[in-house]
Amino acid sequence: METVFIGFGSNVGDRVDLCSRAVTLLRLLPRSQVTHVSPLYETEPVDDGAHPGSGWFLNGVLQIATALPPRHLLSILREIEQALGRDQDNRSGPRTMDLDILFYGNRSIHEPDLIVPHPRLHRRRFVLMPLSEIAPLWIHPVNQCSMRQLLAEVDDPAEVRRLSPQPSFISDPYSPQHHGSNS
Ligand code: ADP
Ligand code: MG
Hints:
The protein is of the alpha+beta class. The chain has one domain (2-179): 2-Layer Sandwich (Alpha-Beta Plaits), CATH 3.30.70. The protein is 24% helix and 24% strand. The chain has helices at 15-27, 70-83, 125-134, 147-153; strands spanning 2-10, 32-37, 41-43, 57-66, 98-104, 109-111, 114-116, 160-162. Strands 1, 2, 3, 4, 5 and 8 form a six-stranded antiparallel beta sheet that branches. A hairpin with a 2-residue loop joins strand 6 and strand 7 (114-116). The two termini are 31 Å apart. Bound molecules: adenosine-5'-diphosphate and magnesium ion. Magnesium ion binds at residues 98, 100.
């Protein structure tokens, strides 16, 4: 089994519902187990090549243990994006769901349609904040920095705020609605 981190984000439609559905579908991945789901963050759209429009994103990160090979996982992520209404003809436009492989264990992958670790994750506050929350001591296999270090040093002016209150499918230890395991 490998430890894999998947970033998810939505900036059009019922974003909370879309994130909830994405997490539900990811829990059904074959040969895999979801081990952590981060809280959700509201993030300002940044125009770094793509043109996602003006809608703010909801973003989060999920950690899984999986025996699926990277390409197999990527193809399932694309199917989930499609199932949740991702516009395949305008992939860089507003997206109902974007799923990215952030880390696949300590592997470096350089293929035309799959680059791991995700090449922009260390520059994005909206990825580093949820990553630092669920895996602060995880080490980036290329630059050898922890998620906590990368977040402390990131130079990203885009605003990122923790969604409050968190939706019920996220178990949030900081939320007043959370009453432990039997709630
Ligand atoms: P982005 O997520 O950068 O806004 P897309 O979701 O449209 O853009 O992805 C564009 C392409 O990026 C996809 O076709 C996919 O094959 C490729 N890609 C490369 N590396 C990764 C990765 N680590 N995770 C997900 N997709 C990736
Ligand atoms: Mg993507």
